[in-house]
């Protein structure tokens, strides 16, 4: 029954949100337009000449020589058009003076949370929708528990196994990752090459449009997300569903940790 319900949810989500037709989401699909360079000196100059901006544009070496098509494959985040997924406005309960600057990396409340200082590498895969979500979950769980829960949630699990209208390296909607978390949980897993977690990232970092010595150049053919590793459910302990993975590690699911996340 669970498999039938899950398949129905996937079909409903994909059709309802229009994920089968990316042009509905404002995606640039014109091949001629995609040949344009991603770095534009005229745009940089015009932006920096404005008086109403808070940041300075410049040339980033990672994008030198890249076209819009080259970079597009890494821009996988889509905004859901389903209004039922948009949080209603909530009036502020208390007005306080805001600090002139704020940085979780130096905030005492996150002193024992190494993940807030971490920058993960998605490789040449449009999985930023998965990365942003699990990074936020990982940080918030740690901060909420004052550093007691340092579980490094797996971006690979979400990239490969979350099919709630999401498409792996071809993009997805971050909000559906939280639905996936509530429905099935997210396993732990580190970055590429990390053997300590359950399902670490399987796509190696690569050099994007640069000639470096640290990483091999990214492939000319866009990467596809590896197939999901199916996991049999086994038992429930303290309200958290768990399942076996290679090496005896386990999938941590929803009930026990949902309050921490929220």
Give the spatial strand order of the biggest sheet: 1-2
Count the beta strands: 2
Structural class: mainly alpha
Can you write the helix and strand succession as a string?
Answer: HHHHHHEEH
CATH top level assignment: Alpha Beta
Could you say what the CATH topology is called? Cathepsin B, Chain A
Radius of gyration: 20 Å
N/C terminus separation: 29 Å
The average pLDDT value, as a whole number, equals 75
Shape estimate: globular
Which range does the strand content fall in? under 5%
Uncertain segments: 1-21, 231-262
CATH architecture: Alpha-Beta Complex
CATH homologous group name = Cysteine proteinases
Number of helices: 7
- Report the biggest beta sheet as strand number plus sense, adding barrel if it closes: 2 strands, antiparallel
Total count of domains: 1
What's the helical proportion of residues? 25-40%
Word description of this protein:
The protein has 262 residues and is mostly helical. The protein is built from 7 helices and 2 strands, in the order H-H-H-H-H-H-E-E-H. It has a two-stranded antiparallel ribbon. The two termini are 29 Å apart. The chain has a single domain (2-43, 61-82, 104-230), classed as Cysteine proteinases (Cathepsin B, Chain A, Alpha-Beta Complex). Mean pLDDT is 75; it is low at 1-21 and 231-262. It is globular.
């Amino acid at each position: 029954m669970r498999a039938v319900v899950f398949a129905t949810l996937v079909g409903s989500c994909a059709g309802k949100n229009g994920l089968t037709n990316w042009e509905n989401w404002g995606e640039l699909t014109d091949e001629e337009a995609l040949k344009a360079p991603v770095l534009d000196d005229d745009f940089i100059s015009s932006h920096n000449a404005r008086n109403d901006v808070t940041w300075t544009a410049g040339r980033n070496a990672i994008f030198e020589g890249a076209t819009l098509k080259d970079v597009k494959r890494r821009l996988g985040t889509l905004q859901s058009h389903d209004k039922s997924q948009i949080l209603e406005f909530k009036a502020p309960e208390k007005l306080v003076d805001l600090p002139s600057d704020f940085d979780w990396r130096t905030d005492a409340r996150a002193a024992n949370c190494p993940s807030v200082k971490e920058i993960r590498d998605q490789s040449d895969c449009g999985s930023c929708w998965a990365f942003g979500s699990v990074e936020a979950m990982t940080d918030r769980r740690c901060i909420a528990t004052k550093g007691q829960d340092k579980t490094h949630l797996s971006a690979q699990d979400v990239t490969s196994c979350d099919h709630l209208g999401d498409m792996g390296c071809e993009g997805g909607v971050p909000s559906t990752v939280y639905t996936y978390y509530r429905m099935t949980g997210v396993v732990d897993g580190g970055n590429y090459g990390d053997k300590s977690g359950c399902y670490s990232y399987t796509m190696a970092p690569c050099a994007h449009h640069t000639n470096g010595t640290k990483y091999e150049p990214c492939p000319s053919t866009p990467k596809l997300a590896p197939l999901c590793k199916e996991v049999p459910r086994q038992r429930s302990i303290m309200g958290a569903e768990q399942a076996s993975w290679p090496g005896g590690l386990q999938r941590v699911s929803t009930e026990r940790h949902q309050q921490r996340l929220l």
